[in-house]
Predict the 3D structure of the following.
Amino acid sequence: MEIVNQTLDSDFLLLGFSEKTEQEMPLFVLFLVIYMVTVVGNLLIMLTIISESFLHTPMYFFLSNLSFVDFCLVSTTVPKMLENILMHSKVISYAGCLAQMYFFLVFACMDNLLLSVMSYDRFVAICHPLNYVSIMNPQFCALLVLLPWTVTLLMSLLHTMMATQLSFCEDHGIPLFFCDISQVLKLSCSDTFINNVLMYFAASLLGVVPLAGILFSYTKICASILRIPSHGGKYKAFSTCGSHLCVVSLFYGTLLGVYLSSSTAYSSWKNSIISAMYTVFTPMLNPFIYSLRNKDIKDALRRLISISTSSQ
């Protein structure tokens, strides 16, 4: 293959949903609706938590951060996809691709780390209820959010800076609707050994370790719940972490499906559908899961909506 030195004037092609042109407009409408629902849902969760003082607790503090990250995650990928569908284009600039890759890494990793932090919060609440207030103090909660942000920002910056040193082959087609680092590396004609080692190290540090923490937390949580003598007590304890468990199952279930299917040679259209499961659909469903299963959120949302309608 001919090696091309990548410059700021070069372009990548997001092949994504381009195989079936007759379905472009239905896909545009579908993803536009999904994007609007995701944005409104997550903004409502954030606004509700900020406006209601009784929701100013560690659990809802972490939830508001998760909603913010989900909002940013879909805003990193979906608007460019909608633009390309509407303009009948596949092009994303080299600088745009690197920027999208950077922010996607940041928000996808933060989503993962926040789920781990939230599982730890539920672990402390259920397994150490008497010490919950002292352990989950405001300073420690801020540290549990600030540290993941710092790690993901620096790790994503390192990935992106290393990608700028690569030369790319003549083929610039990415079989997804966004710039994913693994797909970008596959297009390079440079030696990507160090890039791949860093990618797998980051996947272990920011993926496997948080998942192990979640599994450990819920093992301890389940053991504690089983020791509760009354059925009412067991139900109350489980209900406090039920929404988070649903979100964790949805996120890791779709993510696992993506990477298990990555070894199969799917078309770009099918690859994009599979990737959309955790990059688009999961952030859309999270606000519904938390609002439908959480009485405090539902009550606060009703009050917020009633205040808004009465003031008009």
